[in-house]
Specification:
The protein is an alpha/beta fold. It is built from 9 helices and 15 strands. The protein folds into 2 domains: 140 residues, 2-keto-3-deoxy-galactonokinase, substrate binding domain (Nucleotidyltransferase, domain 5); 120 residues, 2-Layer Sandwich (Nucleotidyltransferase, domain 5). The strands form 3 sheets. Strands 3-2-1-4-8-7 form a 6-stranded mixed sheet, with helices on both faces. The protein has a 6-stranded mixed sheet with strand order 6-13-12-11-14-15, with helices on both faces. Strands 5-9-10 form a 3-stranded mixed sheet, with no helix packed on it. Strand 2 and strand 3 form a beta hairpin. Helix 5 crosses helix 8 and helix 7 packs across helix 8. The longest helix has 18 residues. The protein is globular, with a radius of gyration of 21 Å.
Length: 307
């Protein structure tokens, strides 16, 4: 017999939407995903989008929903104010915002901010992945969460102490689409397994200046007269290498980093960590955000039985 649903868990990002129907043990009964992220939703569209996906999974009308990500941003569905660091990862639920005037109980988890002068920073969504890692294995230490804005977070005993953001993914998109490197990168076919990627990472780890190395991608193409087939891999390696080099200077040799990523992104960072002499273990980000959402749901609705 199929288990009855306990809650719906939603990871609502800037460009993507993902929903899981979960039973009382956190197992997935059904899931939906789409490109209906925050950018695609006006404030009055969040509710209809959510209900359409719940209806497609035949979710009960009284089923509660827990949400993380950009739906709680300013300009999202309902703003869920940031928690200040140090933030207890097992208490995110206590600061969730309820969506008023909606037909079912929907709670949106907060993001986390860092207000220290000169180190101001914010995250929204990644804290729920970190909460999932804590709920799963009581993991502490340094975490790397790549993405459009890559986060490096220090977690100790279930508290998010501090974090730093690198605009690595956004810079790659801007440089590859809207700069003089566009034609070279568009023609490139290399990836994180290519020598060009590894060489670029090594150059940044050796202390090369990023902006000068970026222009060398264009110069190499012009001087060789070819389409620079390794340009894409080299650009990625330079940016990721610069990020890892910046963090490595504050770490002991052989320090371990927990990487929360998947697919080619995980492989790229694993290669960079190996080149940098850093130990690495990799956890799946989608699995962790789901676990973090479920932990919050269990804390919010402890008396609830499966529908």
């Amino acid at each position: 017999m199929t288990s009855a649903p306990f809650c719906a868990a939603v990871d609502w990002g800037t460009t993507n939407f993902r929903l899981w129907l979960l039973d009382a043990q956190g197992s997935v009964l059904g899931e939906r995903s789409s490109g209906e992220g925050m950018r695609a939703c006006l404030p009055d569209r969040f509710g209809p989008v959510l209900e359409a996906h719940l209806s497609a999974l035949q979710a009960p009308a009284e089923l509660p929903v827990i949400v993380a990500g950009m739906a709680g941003a300013r300009g999202g569905w309902r703003e869920a104010a940031y928690l200040d660091t140090p933030a207890p990862l097992d208490a995110l639920h206590a600061h969730a915002v309820q969506v008023e005037g909606f037909g079912r109980d929907v709670r949106i988890l907060p993001g986390v901010c860092q207000r220290e002068g000169g180190r101001e920073d914010v995250m929204r969504g990644e804290e729920t992945q970190l909460a999932g890692a804590w709920a799963e294995s009581r993991a502490s230490g340094l975490f790397c969460l790549p993405g459009t804005h890559s986060k490096w977070a220090r977690v100790e005993e279930g508290r998010l102490l501090s974090f730093t953001t690198y605009m690595t993914g956004e810079l790659f998109a801007l440089l590859s689409q809207h700069s003089t490197l566009h034609d070279m990168v568009a023609a490139g076919k290399g990836d994180e397994t290519s020598p060009a990627f590894r060489d670029a990472v090594a150059e940044m780890l050796d202390g090369a200046g990023l902006t000068g190395k970026l222009f060398s991608i264009r110069a190499a193409s012009l001087l060789s007269g070819d389409a620079a087939p390794d340009a894409k891999a080299r650009l990625s390696g330079l940016l990721i290498g610069a990020e890892v080099a910046a963090m490595r200077k504050d770490l002991d040799a052989g320090a371990e980093v927990t990487l929360i990523a998947g697919g080619s992104t995980a492989r790229a960072y694993e290669t960079a960590f190996s080149n940098a002499g850093l130990a690495c273990r990799t956890l799946d980000g989608q699995d962790l955000v789901r676990r973090g959402l479920f932990a919050a749901a269990r804390a919010l609705w402890p008396e609830r039985k499966a529908a």
